Amino acid sequence: MSRVLIVDSHAVARAGYRQLLEKESAVDIGEAEGESGMLEQLSTSAWDLLLLDLDMSDQKGLQMLTSIRSKHPQMPILVLSKLPESVYARDAIRAGASGYLSKAGTAEEVQKAVRTTLAGHRYVSSKFAEILAEDLGSATHEPAHTRLSAREFQIFCKLARASGSRKSPASSA
């Protein structure tokens, strides 16, 4: 039996997630309305998964996520947020989230994300996977100066020479 803690400031959202998870196999579900309730639950019980809304009024989003990750390094954290994936998912994953899912997603997507993170894997939506793939495809590993035009490189070199030829006041004393 998996133990899942749902943390969301909206009672209706928590009830909806509970209903979705109860359709899955045996799951023990806990709920917390905000940061203080979540911290109490995390300190008194072991959880297999934390479903976390980053947009709660009494918390600091990514800072809280980083703090939770440092205290519970093995616990998967699935972020469910109304904040757009294209802007926030990358930062949430860097801060320690095991996955990021928009609240605009489908019930099936939430269930899939929960199964994936409970299995010990990371979860990203197909939309966010496309964003990551585009970033990788456009990323270049060549030094920045090699992307300059011939004239830009010439000016860059002159600026570097001029900067290197200046004597500091301390060296002329």
Q: Would you give an account of this structure?
A:
- This protein has a 6-stranded parallel β-sheet, sandwiched between helices.
- It is elongated.
- With 173 residues, the chain is of the alpha/beta class.
- The longest helix has 16 residues, at 150-165.
- Strand 5, helix 5 (107-118) and strand 6 form a beta-alpha-beta unit.
- It has helices spanning 11-22, 35-44, 62-71, 85-94, 107-118, 126-138, 150-165; strands at residues 2-7, 27-32, 49-52, 77-81, 99-102, 123-124.
Per-chain topology:
Layout: E1 2-7, H1 11-22, E2 27-32, H2 35-44, E3 49-52, H3 62-71, E4 77-81, H4 85-94, E5 99-102, H5 107-118, E6 123-124, H6 126-138, H7 150-165
Parallel strand pairs: 1-2, 1-3, 3-4, 4-5, 5-6
Descriptive terms for the model:
173 residues; six-stranded parallel β-sheet; 7 helices; 6 strands; alpha/beta
Brief characterization of the structure:
This protein has 173 residues and is an alpha/beta fold. The chain is built from seven helices and six strands; from the N terminus they run E-H-E-H-E-H-E-H-E-H-E-H-H.
